[in-house]
Design a protein that fits this description.
This protein is an alpha+beta fold. The chain folds into three domains: about 110 residues, Serine Threonine Protein Phosphatase 5, Tetratricopeptide repeat (Alpha Horseshoe); about 70 residues, Immunoglobulin-like (Sandwich), CATH 2.60.40; about 110 residues, no CATH class. The chain contains eight helices and nine strands. The strands form three sheets. A four-stranded antiparallel β-sheet has the order 4-3-6-7. Strand 8 and strand 9 form a beta hairpin.
Length: about 325
Amino acid sequence: MKAVVIAIVLAGLGSARADSPKLAEARAAIDQVRYDDAQRLLVDALAAGGHSPEDVRLIYQLAASTAVVLGQRELGEQYYRRWLALDPAAKLPDGSSPKLADAFVAAQAYMAAHGRLTVRAKPRGSQVDVIVESDPLHMAAAASADATRVALVDGRATLTATRAIAILDERGNQLVVLDVPVELTGPATSTGPTVAPRPVRDVLPPSRPLSRRWTTWAVPSAAFLLAGAILGTLAITQQEDLDDAIGASGEHFFSEIDGNHDTIKRNATIGIALGSVGAVLAIPAAVFFLRGRGPQRGRLSLQPVVHSTGIGVAGAF
């Protein structure tokens, strides 16, 4: 049964690559159902260091499966966690045994709660800052580029700008390789003809809001003032006709004269009200008009003044 379990795992890995000697010996031991030897060889392979990210993930997967088959479920789950920290999309081959599946699902739940290994490279002039944003299993120990290895201190390291940076564990195995964009590894150069910059066009000042335009207030102000003037003129004319009617009271009924008086009073009241509204609206119209003329030698301040006898405008120059 144990042989079948590991055989399925190996079958899911596809054809063999050019493995390191220790890893190749471990795979051979698994094929020969020598799981104790395979486990030892996998540990030795990790300790030897120098493996690519693909080989490191393979070693963790085989070490986890071997540990579970040998009855070391907790150890197997820890190896699965490391595998998932490097490859969250990892899956067990179809047909894997329930023992492997249980340990793997438990490792998935743990990593879902704690997150994966996340590292980013931030170009800065002729250098690149390496920043470890998440390392729940404390796997990352150094950053390497162009045969230069720099230890991570508080999850950070700085290297000379290059195209690729490898994140290493404490044994020198590559956990992940970061690609650095070519255009960010140094100052940009150009061999083409120099292009003259386009002239900068004059920037028009932003248009005033509708509520701060003098015409917004001037138009209704003029309308109210005109309506008030018409009603006021009509009331004056009616008042003159009423005076003539009172002078010839013998020719008019009292009810007729009283009705004309009510009409005159109503027209006069409405005319005064409309004129007052127009005068109030004229104040912001005047203020915004003067402000729109630009800076002046003096500064004009207008304020409405409400009095018992009417409405006026006070100005300070």
